[in-house]
């Protein structure tokens, strides 16, 4: 490899402003698409930044999500970021036939029809939250606790059949599961155990009295005579759906507001033509540049990727956000464009691990944006965009707060 490819770069890269991509992304795409990087743990990995290279790895089964390997790089020494990407006792859903089996079974219950059927309810929940938000006597109002977080928490809990009285407990559990440095290893283990105990109890209650919800349907798959979800897989699935099912969307709602309101002509474009909302949501996802690391994969064989050879045992970080700004794929990639057509971004991954929750995330983001445009046409940021505070120490980024006024 070239000397430049072997030059070790520390992650995360510095940024000039919270929403701006690191300058290293463009440099690496052009000159060093297989960069050597050092993670906060001190472990070394390789980073891919070109669209075609990233897509190649996402769709190649020789790259595994199982990071519980002794030679796999760790993002950090704190937390348990392997929870979402590692095999565990009784759980065979990470890669290969086990993942295919799991995806087929869960996909039968987590359907597009079910998600689209939720759209009116999601729209009503957005209006309820905006009613409460606009009733505030004082401004500015923080969009995160008033809209961005409670909406996806409420939606995923309602979908799974979690009692409304318990919904407030999931945010901290989700943060612990997705922690990089915010919690230490003992706090993560304790939170995971508490979360697992709660879900075990809920599964038992649903088994005794099934409801018209996703968790009850997953239990029926587990309890069928030819049941192919183990009890451990059922528990892991329900925990992952609850954690990832609200944290990623909550983060994106805040980022969407910041992207549109930091250059308010973007919001005004949508006010003039609300039919652009679906395309605008896709462009927000493509344009998002707040990820620090990307998706990790482990090479189970030596594989050629583009101009590079990925040796067996290498941990590769796939920078989806850097790939989404590849000028060989996207015209004027540094420009946000609500009229962009054929927006084949990688924001929801690709291949066998394409995000199963993407239809739900899209509906939630579309309903939030449509609600804001309809109810708050004068909406604007209450602070300069560069003063927005990033969330630190979690795998899922975003903002701690997004103060707005109108």
From TrEMBL:
Keywords: Heme, Iron, Metal-binding, Monooxygenase, Oxidoreductase. InterPro entries: Cyt_P450, Cyt_P450_B, Cyt_P450_CS, Cyt_P450_sf. It holds the Pfam family p450. The keyword Metal-binding applies. SUPFAM superfamilies: Cytochrome P450. The keyword Metal-binding applies. Belongs to the cytochrome P450 family. PANTHER family: CYTOCHROME P450 YJIB-RELATED (PTHR46696:SF1), P450, PUTATIVE (EUROFUNG)-RELATED (PTHR46696). This is Cytochrome P450. It comes from Streptantibioticus ferralitis.
């Amino acid at each position: 490899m070239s000397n430049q490819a072997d030059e070790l770069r520390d992650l995360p890269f510095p940024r000039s402003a919270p929403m701006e991509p690191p300058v290293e992304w463009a440099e690496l795409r052009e000159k060093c698409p297989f960069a050597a990087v050092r993670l906060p743990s001190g472990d070394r990995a390789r980073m891919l930044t070109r669209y075609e290279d990233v897509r190649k790895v996402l769709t190649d089964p020789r790259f595994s999500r199982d990071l519980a390997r002794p030679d796999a790089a760790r993002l950090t020494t704190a937390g348990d970021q392997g929870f979402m990407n590692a095999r565990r006792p009784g759980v065979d859903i990470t890669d290969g036939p086990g993942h295919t089996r799991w995806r087929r079974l869960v996909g039968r219950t987590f359907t597009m029809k079910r998600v689209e059927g939720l759209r009116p309810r999601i729209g009503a929940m957005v209006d309820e939250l905006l009613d409460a938000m606009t009733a505030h006597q004082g401004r500015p109002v923080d969009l995160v606790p008033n809209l961005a977080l409670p909406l996806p928490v409420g939606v995923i809990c309602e979908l799974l059949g979690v009692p409304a009285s318990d919904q407030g407990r999931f945010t901290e559990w989700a943060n612990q599961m997705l922690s990089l440095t915010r919690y230490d290893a003992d706090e993560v283990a304790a939170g995971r155990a508490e979360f697992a105990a709660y879900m075990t109890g809920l599964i038992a209650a649903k088994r005794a009295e099934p409801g018209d919800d996703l968790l009850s349907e997953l239990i029926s798959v587990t309890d069928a005579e030819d049941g192919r979800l183990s009890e451990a897989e059922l528990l892991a699935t329900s925990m992952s759906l609850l954690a990832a099912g609200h944290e990623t969307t909550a983060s994106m709602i805040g980022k969407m507001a910041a992207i549109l309101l930091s250059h308010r002509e973007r919001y005004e474009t949508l006010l003039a033509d609300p039919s652009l909302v679906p395309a605008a949501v896709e462009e927000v996802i493509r344009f998002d540049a707040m990820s620090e690391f990307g998706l990790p994969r482990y090479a189970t064989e030596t594989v050629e990727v583009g101009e590079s050879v990925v040796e067996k045992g290498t941990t590769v970080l796939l920078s989806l956000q850097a790939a989404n700004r590849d000028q060989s794929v996207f015209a004027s990639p540094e420009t946000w464009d609500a009229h962009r057509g054929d927006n084949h971004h990688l924001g929801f991954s690709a291949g066998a691990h394409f995000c199963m929750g993407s239809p739900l995330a899209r509906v939630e983001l579309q309903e939030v944006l449509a609600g804001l445009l309809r109810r708050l046409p004068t909406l604007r940021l209450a602070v300069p965009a560069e003063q927005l505070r990033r969330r630190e120490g979690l795998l899922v980024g975003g903002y701690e707060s997004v103060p707005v006024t109108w």
